[in-house]
Sequence to fold (227 residues):
Amino acid sequence: MFFLHELERTITLHPSFFGPRTKEYLTTRLLEDVEGTCSGQYYIICVLDAFSISEGRVVPGSGVAEYTIQYRAVVWRPFKGETVDAIVTSVNRMGVFADVGALPVFVSNHLIPPDIKWDPNATPPQYTDNGDQVIEKGTHLRIKLIGTRSDVGSMFAIGSVKEDFLGSVISNYLCQSKLTPIGHFDCSPSSEAKATRSGMHAEKVLEDAFLARSSGSMASLLKALKR
Fold:
């Protein structure tokens, strides 16, 4: 699930960057250092703005200066019970490995429906019911997260496709999209179309957020995030 979060980070700056463009250098460093990283609890998708930059404090003995920056960012935090779309990265007889954006997910063969069997002789190796359901490398898979594990700077999740409306997803939108499918989807009986619309909405919000940040329009940004 996506959140708008206020965070804080301390950045050190070499004396060669001191001058009228110091704040510009700090903002650039902030984007390079935090965007796309994981705190162990959530992923920082994009930095919206740095709303507070402290005065620099020179570190004794080194000459570098420390700045404390407070900033707003769009973060994504996976929750137990959340249904997400993933892309399969590998399969073996133990189960399926997939990526939900930057979050690696493992689906054990015990959490795959019994009618979908492991076929090591297929090319490529896959799980299949000899019908419409095929799970192989590159397959778009709808997964329900049943547990997450946090570590320093990383996260890992266990998922299941053993419930209704989960499993291989056939969606022209996801196949044509250049964005990684990531987000929260509703799996009610009418969810096949609804889930696709939810994925499109999540990606549209992020696209609007990037455009608003680039144009410096905070009002447009907040409007996009409230949709």
Helices lie at 22-34, 172-176, 191-215, 218-225.
